[in-house]
User: What shape does this take?
Amino acid sequence: MRQKTGKCLLHLNNILLIPWNFSTVQSLVAETSAFSNMTPTYALLIAFLLVVCLFFKHFGKLMVFAAQLKGPFAYPLVGNGLKFICKKEDILNVVLSVVNPYPSPTRLWMGPRLVVVVKDPNQLQIVLQSSKITTKGFFYRFLEPFLGKGLFTSSGITHKTHRKLLQPLFSQRMIEGYSHLFQKHADKFVERMRPHAGGPEFDVILYLHDSAFENSMDVLLEDKNDHSIDYKDVPQFVRRFYNIAFTRLRYVWLHWNYLFQKSSLFKDQAYMKTIASTMIEEIMNTRLPEIIERIKNNKMSTSDEVRVPSMMEQIAVMIDDDPNCLTVQNCIDHLMTLVATGQDTYSSTVAFTCMMLGAHPDIQNLAIKELRDVVGDKKSLDMDDVSKLKYLEMCIKETLRLFTVAPFVFRETTEDFQLGKITIPKNVTVVIGIYCVHRDPTLWERPNEFYPDHFQPEAVSKRHPYAYIPFSAGPRKCIAQQYSYTQLKITLGTILLHYELECQRKVEDIKLTTDISVRPLCGYLIKIKERV
Assistant: This one.
């Protein structure tokens, strides 16, 4: 018996010398014959020691590291997870109340998962510039059923390779080619709002979601709005899917697929995935073959309406040149990502900017004066105009500072990572606190006010470059930043040329919540009247 007990103890010692993972567990289970002839007492003792060894092998290093950082008290097993079981409308305030009182980096536990929140610009620069911490956090796997492994969710060599392939789609030449489509949909949006001119306040986002989706389809597919299914439901599916993914993040038990699949959320997700798959299937089975056939016959679209090939045409050219560069599934994932992420960025930023300009007539007057100086009597904008709208761009940037589309970004450490004087171990979730740094009173003159002069050149030159990162930064920086600014300036410029905006709510009056993006609980309420 002593000999067998000694063998088991020796086996336990060896556990501490090997990496612990599921294959290790399987091998240990396969060797349970060592316990077969023991008395129950000995067997239970050895089993207990085994569990203890496995626990400390896996969590010991994390716990030692976590003890170096400041953060809220965490309960066993659930960590700080109970804090986030709150009303949806309170979630952003709860997150900030948990994170803001502590210095950066701040320690949290989401169940057994260690989370480190970084909100200091010097630390953010180290994290975001490094190529060692580009792996997306565990949270993004909750988005994969809808977005697949596009640029938003993928990591490693796949992300690096596909980013390089897709980057030319957002070059300056391509943006100039898309600008007429931006103007086309800005004009359509202005006309849709016209029935509200001179009337009571309304929620402008209801019109922007459809406008954003139609714009995306036009740019992606040279879209003519002739479909076998009604795509109009897709924008609301995107928003609902984001909400489901964020709900899974908040409730630790839904991280386990088995429990999630038993919930009503899973049924909603499956239905939305089916609709999205139908849409993409139609595109891949009809549009892509048509485009490839045109390429082979040298009959690319030369319509005056399309100055540059659509994104889908360019992707088809890539595949024709190198069939191995992207699989059909890669194309599906990237299409869905471009539609979903572009819609949210565009619609929420336009809506928030309309609210802020409506709440500050003096700032709106400066913006319209610049517009009239640039465009004269025109009611539309071209690329030459866009480049001259410096003050309107400052207004957009200030909106993105206050209401950044992605308030928090999640990364995962795949190896030990040096952050200043501390070493973050592997298997830690690092949260980039964009919302926190954007409203840090030590970095901004008026952190909780709409103050476009934050982006006057002299103010920018004095501020840390990583104090403002609405599109992230470094190797994972959004490839569509300039595309977004151009689209936003054309849309907002067109709105201002047609309407005077009014909003009764300033920053301090707007209660915010968040899922993937920051949103106002009251809706995006504005009034408009015809501009004389």
About this structure: Residues 1-67 form one domain. The radius of gyration is 26 Å. The first strand starts at residue 106 and ends at 110. Residues 264-296 form the longest helix (33 residues).
